[in-house]
Amino acid sequence: MEIFWYIAIAIVLTAFFILDGYDFGAGIIHLFFAKKEKDKEVITKSAGLFWDSNEVWLVAAGGMLFMAFPTFYASVFSGFYLPLIIVLWLIIFRAIGLEFRGQFKYQMWKDIWDKSFGISSLLLALFFGIALGNIIRGVNLGTAENGISAHEAHYFFLPLWDSSFSPLTTHPGVIDWFTIIIGLIAVVTLTIHGANWIILKTNSSINNKLKTVIFNLNIVLTLLTIFSIIVWQIVNPNALDNFINKPYLLIFPIMYLIGLIGLFFIKKIQKNSHAFLLSTLVITGGIWSSLASLFPVILPSINNVNQHLTIYNTAASEYGLSTALIWGVIGFILIFVYMIIQNRLTSGKIDNMDYGH
Amino acid sequence: MLFYDRLQFAFTITFHYIFPQLTMGLSLMIVYFKWTYLRTKTEKYNNAAKFFMKIFAINFTMGVVTGIPMEFQFGTNWAKFSELTGGIIGQTLAMEGLFSFFLESSFLALFIFGEKLMGQKLHFLTGFLVFLGSWASGYFILATNAWMQHPVGYEILDNGKFVLENFSALFTNPWLLPAFLHNQMASIVTSAFVVASIGAFYILRNKHSEYGKLFLKTGVIFGLISSVLVAFPTGDWNAKNVVKYQPATFAAMEGIFETEDAGAEIVLIGQPNMVDKKLDNKIAVPNILSFLTYQEWDRQIAGMDQFKKEELPDNIPALYYSYHIMVGLGTIFISVMLLAIFFLWRKKLYTIKPLLWIIMFLVPFPYIANITGWYTAELGRQPYLVYGLLKTSEGVSPTVSSGNTLFTLLGFVALYMLLGLLFLILVGKTINEGPKPKSH
Question: Would residue A277 be called left, alpha or beta, if left means φ above 0 and alpha means ψ between -120 and 50 degrees?
């Protein structure tokens, strides 16, 4: 039952990163590449029409995590207190950027909210990557010093950074050189994804240029990926054990690879939806490879005193989990139905859709 | 440590609840306008529905961005509480995500953008589903809160964890239905007063006056019905639940310091004096409280002297004022709406300017009544998070220092000031433009 909810939450989180990921990416593209007013407007629209229904997936993931793994939820949310609250603020800035830009015609007004949308999109992508980096690296659970825990075994608190910026100290911060690398991977991946979304959904004048951008970023992504796998071995020498013991898990790195290689042919791909599918594969493969490398651990302990948090020692009761299974299945069927209805009605390019509110 | 955590939650939830209380009630009124349009084919009603959908959308966005921090704060600031009770309230909160947010957000987009695409009947249906989603959201939140006020269906393990024992008990909780209905009626009060207030504004300014009359009429009719239902029977049911399940809270919110054997008086005005344990400058009517609570004039009601200090709420004056502000405002709402309905019946409502000014300026007060109502529930539950079982001081995050909490609290205050300002600008602009469709 723990495994079922683990997978369900992973799917919901992945859906969040695929869906809200494209509007983060659109924000980054908007920040760096959109120069003409028409392009800025249409890119804002390509995110603005969808961001709130995309962010529902984050809320759903949070709620499910709370229900199924309350100890993990409590530990991680209080331990990563500062970065999480900052993420909340960024989400708010991004949303007001999207919603308020079109309300007045003054250039200054538009410029303010364009920057608000773009910069918070960039920082959010970075922070989400850093978060994944922290999960992979692990934390000092119980804040142990010389073999003695300062807190209960599953609690911790991370400052934003430690002066060494190293993942190898006993008290690493949220931001260190390893998590920054993972953060950059997230930024590059979501930028590619967002560019694909813009090409797919709009007729912006930079669509052709974006294909070159995707190609170049893909080179950067490949280099970053290779580099991260090497340093991962330094941070966690057992990182690849799960893949050796359970070779079927290799499906996830393979998904990532297919996406990565496919994106090099971006200029030859005829259907834009195929390119979007490739960046979706990269995101999915990346997240699931990271999760699979840890499974069944969900937050490693970097000290020898306290054990890792796993899906088994953080889960709610069996009765609760199996009851939730019943309503969970009904809920997911309904969501699936809404998505089909919504997709049928909003398919195609969005340039001429009314974005009046 | 505890102080800033409580202040941050109070501040962020107060600000958040400005928005859902309007959207829940307003979605019902939008459904009403759309339904009337389908029946009468009068274009005016369709424009009214679309106009209020614009107001709804702004509020919905605000509700989403200020709502995500609420869910996160369970974990960030109240980690111990989340760890101990997540197996139970996680159920209702996760159900809210799955059953109401997806419904609401998917169909809101369709309602706003899809009228031409779908035809009128489907358009009505999407509006109805938005209404359903927003009310479902309220239901799951109230179910969560009901469990904290009156815990049911649980078992406590040796390590202090609350484990779910009976899922359906969460929804048959005797606290839930009265609280939900009271809350929803109060949310209709807010939306009705907003609609009426915009109507009064249009009439007074002599702008969009055709819509002004429609809004004012609809607003006062919804306003009277909901203001009455908020007090009776739903408010009454809630008070009876409080006296039954949280008698110490009841004594504190009513301001009864000493038990009177011959029946309890109802306090109208007075300031709690916590040093001398009495109300200063009290105006009270004898025996009414006993009658309202038990329908017996001389029934004894336990005063605060009957309870140990640690069983009583920790901020009695704030609780007392919250409750009395809510009740006082509720009484004013019923009076004003009765007056408005009387003049509507005599066909004079649109011309009596003083009354129109009053209705226009009454708009902040249902918000205050809603929020003080929630303060009554939440301050009344203190010093517990889970009534009688888990103290608020035991629920706070063990590793987050007060310096960090103050930092985030200040950040939220600054950010929400900005958000509030933008919200007012945007709503003001929308109201000023009015419901007339743009000429293409």
Answer: alpha
Domain limits for position A24: 2-315
The C-alpha of A214 sits at a distance from chain B's nearest C-alpha, in angstroms, of 30
Best of A81, A100, A342 to disrupt the B interface (most B CBs within 10 Å) is A81
Contact B87, B161 (CB under 8 A): yes
Mutate which: A56, A112, A337, A352, vs B, most B CBs within 10 A: A56
Q: Is B34 helix (H, G, I), strand (E, B) or coil?
A: helix
Whether residue A296 is preceded by a cis peptide bond, meaning omega within 30 degrees of 0, is yes
What chain A residue is nearest to B426 in terms of C-alpha separation? Answer: A103
Q: What is the ipTM of this complex?
A: 0.91
Whether the CB-CB separation of B423 and B22 falls below 8 Å is answered with: no
* Contact flag A345-B110 (C-beta cutoff 8 Å): yes
Residue A173 maps to a domain: yes
Query: Looking at the partner chain, which of A52, A82, A327 has a beta carbon nearest the beta carbon of B105?
Result: A52
Asked if residue A102 belongs to a domain, the reply is yes
B423–chain A Cβ distance below 8 A for any pair: no
User: Residue A343's closest chain B neighbor by CA?
Assistant: B106
Residues in chain A within 8 Å Cβ distance of B397: 74, 78, 81, 155
The number of folded domains in chain B is 1
For A103, the enclosing helix (H) or strand (E) is none
Asked whether residue A343 is assigned to any structural domain, the reply reads no
Within 8 A by CB and 6+ apart from B166, the residues are B152, B153
| Rounded-to-integer distance, Cα A71 and Cα B87, Å | 9
Closest C-alpha to A242, from A198, A204, A294, A282: A294
Both structure tokens of B359: 């209705």
Residue A244 located in a structural domain: yes
Do A74 and B87 lie within an 8 Å CB cutoff?
A: no
Q: How many domains does chain A have?
A: 1
Is B56's Cβ below 8 Å from some Cβ in A?
no
Report the chain A residue with the minimal C-alpha distance to residue B399.
A157
Domain annotation covers residue B233 = yes
Minimal CA separation from A171 to chain B, in Å: 14
B257 touches chain A (CB under 8 A): no
pLDDT in tens, chain B (440 residues): 689 999 999 999 999 999 999 999 999 999 999 999 999 999 999 999 999 999 999 999 899 899 999 999 999 999 999 999 999 999 999 999 999 999 998 888 888 877 877 888 889 999 999 999 999 999 999 999 999 999 999 999 999 999 999 999 999 999 999 999 999 999 999 999 999 999 999 999 998 989 999 999 999 999 999 999 999 999 999 999 999 999 999 999 999 999 988 888 999 999 999 999 999 998 999 888 999 988 888 888 999 999 999 899 999 999 999 999 999 999 999 999 999 999 999 999 999 999 999 999 999 999 999 999 999 999 999 999 999 999 999 999 999 999 999 999 999 999 999 999 999 999 999 999 999 765 54
Strand ranges, E, within B319-362: none
| CB-CB neighbors (< 8 A) of B85 in chain A | 70
* Residue B72, in any domain of the structure: no
